[in-house]
Each structure stands twice: as structure tokens, then as C-alpha cells.
Amino acid sequence: MVPYDNVRRNIEYYLELYPQTDCIFVATDDANFLDYLQNAPLGRTIVCRDDSFRSRDGSSIHESAHTDKYAINRDAIVNCLLLSRCQALLKTASILSGWSKLFNPGLPVVMLNKPRDEHLWFPERVLIEENLFEPVK
Questions:
Q1: If you write DSSP's letter for every residue of 84-102 in order, what string do you get?
Q2: Any idea what DSSP says for residue 33?
Q3: Residue 62, C-beta contacts closer than 8 angstroms, at least 6 positions apart
Q4: C-alpha neighbours within 13 Å on the C-beta side of residue 56
Q5: 8 Å CB contact between 102 and 123
Q6: CA 63, 37, 99, 94 torsion-angle sign
Q7: Which residues pair with 62 in a beta bridge?
Q8: 8 Å CB contact between 22 and 47
Q9: Is the dihedral of CA 32, 137, 126, 102 positive or negative?
Q10: pLDDT tens per residue, range 66-118
């Protein structure tokens, strides 16, 4: 996981580079991260989908036996498509968000962390070489 503060710093840096940005779309299954960004002084509206499930304890919702897989997969695909319509994508190592670039090949991307070598599949292995800017640590 990328620390919340690190993601916030990269959003702030992006906003310095592109001050005309009027809102930030957040796709996450981590309810605590969403709360963190909604309370961060970013000076922009935070937009997100009202997804079916979000985790509060750091557990992976798509691996839980107690969630509706249809709803989780629907949320994931819709979020992926919404991300593809953004002006830029700041992302952590996630194959799902990486597919947003395939739906919109012109989408500028910033990879905030590199996937582990054993998980460096397409499209992640290509995206890490095309960063819009080098992530702020």
C-alpha cells in the first residue's frame, strides 16, 4: 500500500502542475482512505461512486467470502471506466485501474508505486515507463 500522505502529496503536486483541475475522482475500496482525502485540504471537490462495499479494516473486499461478487465486480468495472474519462490517472499498483489506460490510450498516468516483480503484468509493466511525472515521495 502507498501511504495516504504520499498519495495526497502527489495529488497536491499534480494540482500545482495543472491548477485548472476542478475536481478529483477517487476510486477506492478503502473507506478510511476516502475519508482521509475528503478531509484533506486539497481545495477541490472530491468525487466518488457510491460503491456497494468498502473496507474499514484493510481487508481486501474482492477476496472476502461475505460480499456480493456481482456488485463488487460491477463497481470495479464502472470505476475503471470512469477513471478512463479523467484528465489524468494517479494510481497505485492495480491492474484494474491500469486497464483505464486501455479504454483511453491518451490518458496521462502517474504510477505511485511499482508492482512487485511477480505481479508486473500488462498493462502495469508498460505504465511504469510512461509516468506523466516522477512521483513525489
A1: HTSS-EEE-S-HHHHHHHH
A2: H
A3: 29, 69, 72, 73, 76
A4: 0
A5: yes
A6: negative
A7: none
A8: no
A9: positive
A10: 778 888 889 999 999 999 999 999 998 888 888 999 999 999 999 898 877 77
Spell out the alpha helix ranges (H) of 1-137: 4-17, 31-39, 69-84, 95-103, 124-127
pLDDT in tens, 33-62: 999 999 999 999 999 999 887 877 776 766
Residue 70 C-alpha cell reads as 456481482
Helix (H/G/I), strand (E/B), else coil: 118? helix
| Three-class SS state of 29 | coil
Copy the grid coordinates of residue 23: 475536481
Residues in the chain, total: 137
Pairwise CA distance, residues 88 & 10, whole Å: 12
